[in-house]
Amino acid sequence: MSTVTSRVHRRQLLRAGAAGGLAAALGASAVPVQVGAEEVLMTAYGAGVNLKLMPDVDGAPVVPMRESFAFDPIYAQCIVEDNAERFAMDTFEMGRVVIEPHQFFMAMYADSVGLDEIRQNANGSWTATMLGSLFCTTFAGTSSVAVGSREAKEHAKFLIEATDGGVGGGAPPDTFAFTVYFDSDEAPVNHGIFGPEFTFTGEMVAGKITIGKPIGLTVAETAP
Fold it and tell me: What are the tens digits of pLDDT across the range 122-148?
C-alpha cells in the first residue's frame, strides 16, 4: 500500500500552468506538492454523476436524484439541478419534509482547493483526498414553505475523497464523496437543512475518475 501526503497547511500548491517541466507536460491535472524536501507531482481529476435514491412520501427509497460533479487539483463542484418527482428528506432542524417537484436545487462551487493526499488501497485502487472551501447555494420548497435561494451563497469547508478503481471488468468501481462542514453562523440555511456535516455521494453511474501514482518520490510498497 502506498501513501504520499502533503503536510503543508491548506496546501502550498503551485498551479500546474506555472510549474513547467513535467507538470506542464501532464497538463493541469498534475500539481507539484512539497513533501519534506521533495517535490512530488500528484494527479487527480474526474467528472461524473452520482445517483442516489431518495425516500418517497411513504419512506420507500425509490425517487432518483442525480448529483453531477467535477474536480481537479484546483477546482471542484457538485450540483443537483432539479428534482422531477416529489421526495421526502430528513432535515437537521425541521425534521422530515416533503419536497415538491422542481422545488430542490443545490450547487457547490469551490473557491479554494488543495490536493492533500494520494494513497493506494488494499484492492489496488487509488484514492485522492482534497481539502478546501466552497460557496453553496441551496433551495428547498414544500407545499407550504420555501427555504433558501437559487442565488444566495453561503460559505463552508469541505473534504473530497475520490477513488479510481482502475480499468477492466474486475476493477472496483470509481467513487466520489463530497463531505461539507456547515457552520450555523456562516451557513445557516445549509446547516438547518443538512446539519453540521453532510456527505454528498451515491452510486457513480456515469463519468470517470483518474488518480495517478505520485511522481518524484519513492514510496514504500507493502502487501495489502
Answer: 999 999 999 999 999 999 999 999 999
pTM of the predicted model, to two decimals?
A: 0.81
pLDDT one-digit tens code per residue, 178-197: 999 999 999 999 999 999 99
Three-class DSSP labels, 18-75: HHCHHHHHHCCCEEEEEECCEEEEEEEEEEEEEEEEEECCCCCEEEEEEEEEEEECCE
Question: Where are the domains positioned within the chain?
Answer: 43-215
What percentage of the chain exceeds 70 in pLDDT? 78
